[in-house]
Amino acid sequence: MGFQAKAGTHDITAGDALAWPEVYFTGVGWVPFHPLPQSDQVPKPPEQEFKPKPETSEPPPPSEAPVPTLEPTTSAPKQENVPTVGAAGPNFVVIAGAGGGGLVMLTFLAFILIVLIGRSKLRRRRLDTGTPADRVEGAWLEVADALRLAGRPAPEHLTAAEVSAHAATAAARIRGKHTVRLAAPPIDELAGVVNESTFARDEAASEQAEIARVRALTYIGELKARRSWFRRLIWTLHPGPLRWRRR
Q1: What is the largest CA-CA distance in the chain?
Q2: Cβ of 196: how many Cβ atoms within 10 Å?
């Protein structure tokens, strides 16, 4: 037990008495404990005395980082290697393009040549070979093909006389830009020769075959002349007669 002394002179009474427990620890001895709050302290829960105090760490002082300095360099900047097309690249493309275009042109020219030769042989076979009756029939087929090339085909059910009238309408008188073109010569005589060759008992004579040839070529020339230059070009290069031919 003991008492708490106050500053100055005063009387000590029983109220000043203070008792406290002590706990013995091995190797330490008796340790006093004061479970009651002190008179000069603010009361607070006893468990706060046993809570560990938080550690406060002060931030480290800022370190001054060295400022980088740029040193002048005398070496030239590096240039990126840009891939360049070799000298053979463009030449190869040009050669390949020229070769492909040349192949197309050769194919087109070969087609034109085949059509021209084929149609020439077809006309000679129709008008110059075979019996007179065959040549008369060939002249009539030439006129029929010409009407188809002119865009005015004759219906198949028409008779020879009706085809002659249809041909006269297809090659009628026309007025061009500066000239007036008269009607093409009629093919009535050719139609008569065809009827005689088809229905007569006697064979057609060579004179009749020649008349049919002349009348057919004259009419075809006039019919073609009435077309525009572009239609005449298509007429010349058209492969149709090679597919339409009946003999």
Answers
A1: 183
A2: 15
Q: Could you give the CA distance from residue 212 to residue 198 in angstroms, rounded to a whole number?
A: 13
DSSP-derived letter for residue 25 is: E
Burial of 153 (0-12, 13-18, 19+ CB in 10 A): middle
* Residue 61: Cβ-neighbour burial (10 angstroms; 0-12, 13-18, 19+): exposed
User: Tell me, what's the pLDDT at 24?
Assistant: 83
| Contact (Cβ atoms closer than 8 angstroms) between residue 156 and residue 129 | no
For the chain, list residues with pLDDT below 50: 85, 87
Over the stretch 1-50, which tens digit does the pLDDT of each residue have?
555 666 677 777 776 677 778 888 887 788 777 766 666 667 666 566 65
User: Which CA distances in Å does 30 have to 16, 20, 33, 157?
Assistant: 23, 12, 10, 146
Q: CB–CB of 143/186 below 8 Å?
A: no
pLDDT of residue 114: 93
CA geometry: angle 60, 66, 70, nearest 5 deg: 160
Q: Cα(104)–Cα(111) distance, rounded to whole angstroms?
A: 11
Number of H helices, E strands in the chain: 8, 6
Q: List the Cα angle 184/187/191 in 5-degree steps.
A: 165
- What CA–CA distance (Å, rounded) separates 97 from 126? 44
